[in-house]
């Protein structure tokens, strides 16, 4: 079955004719974005023809996303909606009205791009600032976690026993026996005195 390129196509149309009709309708719909072209059609009485009005109603299928994505001038859809009203079709024949609409459209095109770029820049700057704040917060949390872990862990001292961060040793740690300094001659005299005392005690017994 041939692919349908538009709506309301008859079954007798070939695929080539459907494609050609789709291209013609695409070009015509986009021409509606020009107020001067609308003024041209109004002055020649097209907007008084009921068949042409029905054709404008038929073209509203271009507002659907599947078709609107092919439009290079989406403002044409706005004018297509306005053409559905008899009051607009009657007033667009006036050259002054056409000029006013044309001026407003040009101003909108001039400022729309600038506003759009500014909005994009503001959103991008806000996202970058948010990312920087998140990175700084993560770094701060990491430093706090590292500092807390170091203060809780015991540190070994020179003697090999563990001590806490305030320098106090736990009570369960074994203390090495330190030798008392002294004169070797005095130590020998003490030993001899102990030995003689022991001999005297043995003789008395």
TrEMBL record:
Keywords: Activator, Nucleus, Transcription, Transcription regulation. It is found in: Nucleus. The keyword Nucleus applies. Residues 154-174 have a biased composition (Polar residues). Residues 175-190 have a biased composition (Low complexity). GO terms for cellular component: mediator complex. Residues 131-198 are annotated as: Disordered. InterPro entries: Med31_sf (IPR038089), Mediator_Med31 (IPR008831). It comes from the Eukaryota. One of its GO terms (biological process) is regulation of transcription by RNA polymerase II. One of its GO terms (molecular function) is transcription coactivator activity. Component of the Mediator complex, a coactivator involved in the regulated transcription of nearly all RNA polymerase II-dependent genes. Mediator functions as a bridge to convey information from gene-specific regulatory proteins to the basal RNA polymerase II transcription machinery. Mediator is recruited to promoters by direct interactions with regulatory proteins and serves as a scaffold for the assembly of a functional preinitiation complex with RNA polymerase II and the general transcription factors. Component of the Mediator complex. Belongs to the Mediator complex subunit 31 family. This is Mediator of RNA polymerase II transcription subunit 31. The lineage of its organism: Eukaryota, Metazoa, Ecdysozoa, Arthropoda, Hexapoda.
């Amino acid at each position: 079955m041939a692919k349908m390129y538009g709506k309301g196509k008859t079954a007798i149309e070939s695929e080539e004719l459907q494609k050609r009709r789709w291209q013609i309708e695409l070009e015509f719909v986009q021409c509606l974005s020009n107020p001067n072209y609308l003024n041209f059609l109004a002055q020649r009485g097209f907007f008084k023809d009921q068949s042409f009005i029905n054709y404008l109603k038929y073209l509203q299928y271009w507002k659907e996303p599947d078709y609107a994505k092919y439009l290079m001038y989406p403002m044409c859809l706005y004018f297509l909606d306005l053409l559905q009203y008899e009051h607009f079709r009657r007033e667009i024949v006036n050259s002054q009205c056409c000029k006013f609409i044309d001026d407003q459209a040009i101003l909108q095109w001039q400022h729309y791009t600038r506003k759009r770029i500014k909005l994009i820049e503001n959103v991008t700057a806000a996202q970058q600032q948010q990312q920087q704040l998140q990175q700084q917060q993560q770094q701060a949390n990491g430093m706090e976690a590292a500092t807390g872990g170091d203060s809780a862990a015991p540190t070994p001292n020179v003697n090999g026993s563990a001590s806490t961060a305030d320098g106090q040793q736990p009570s369960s740690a074994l203390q090495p026996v330190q030798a008392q300094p002294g004169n070797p001659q005095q130590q020998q005299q003490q030993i001899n005195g102990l030995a003689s005392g022991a001999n005297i005690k043995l003789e008395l017994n």
